[in-house]
Amino acid sequence: MDAMTTQPIPTDDPAVTTPPKGAYAYVNGLEMYYESHGSGRPLVLLHGGVHTIGLTFGAIMPALAATHRVIAVELQGHGHTADIDREMTVPRFAEDVVALLDVLGIKRADLFGFSLGGMTALETALRYPERVDRVVLASVPFQPDGYLDEIRDPALHSGSRRLPTPADFQAMVDAYTAVAPQPGALPGLHGQVHGRGGL
User: Fold this and answer.
1) Three-state secondary structure of 77-140
2) CB under 8 A, 24+ apart: contacts of 88-95
3) How many CA atoms lie within 13 A of 118 on its CB side?
4) Residue 114 Ramachandran class (φ > 0 left, ψ -120 to 50 alpha, else beta)
5) pLDDT (tens digit, 9 = 90+) per residue, 26-63?
């Protein structure tokens, strides 16, 4: 893993409810954005597909940061983190998470992942068990047939109560375009994340 240095940056993500301490870490050829909040036991937050830190965790960040050193990550092509010329895969996301831990000097951490972030947390725990303590997974299948038919079959999307509503999708668009270095890349990101069953 090609972990390097960090560089603080300002952020204006309206969905973040606490003042962010954002920075970029150079890992595996990627300028990965992350935020650090609070102090205590390290807890890495991994957002859902086509989400930002604020959209997935903004409402609960203050409570988590009250008792933990929260490191909230934006994965390749998501939010502040620009896409690079490599395929988006969950194993690569897991490599990036471990490389970030290396940059930050964190030997072990708890992981909390939602959806795509949950798959990344699970992959990180399985591939790098020596780096992970506790894992909290939300909305995550551990194998492809764990997806319900209404999620796998686009013909069933319109009647689903489990999928995001049009207002939810608009919130994703708004959060992404507010912070993304390449706002026009959203359709491609959506296709990569959802066109492959969440990677």
Assistant:
1) CCCCCCCCCCCCCHHHHHHHHHHHHHHHCCCCEEEEEECHHHHHHHHHHHHCHHHEEEEEEECC
2) 88/192, 88/193, 88/199, 89/199, 90/116, 90/119, 90/120, 90/123, 90/199, 91/123, 91/127, 92/28, 93/46, 93/120, 93/123, 93/199, 94/120, 94/123, 94/124, 94/127, 94/128, 95/1, 95/28
3) 14
4) beta
5) 999 999 999 999 999 999 999 999 899 999 999 999 99
CB atoms within 10 A of CB 107: 9
Strand partners, 72: 35, 45
Tell which residue, 4, 7, 12, has the closest CA to residue 177. 12
Residue type, 176: Y
Structural contact between residues 198 and 118, judged by C-beta atoms closer than 8 angstroms:
no
CA–CA separation, 199 vs 181, rounded Å?
A: 22
**Per-residue pLDDT tens for 77-130?**
999 999 999 999 999 999 999 999 999 999 999 999 999 999 999 999 999 999
Q: Which residues lie across from 8 on neighbouring strands? A: 23
Write out pLDDT tens, residues 129-179: 999 999 999 998 877 777 777 777 767 777 777 778 888 888 988 888 899
Nearest partner of 121 among 105, 140, 99, 143, judged by Cα: 140
**Cβ atoms within 10 Å, residue 51:** 25
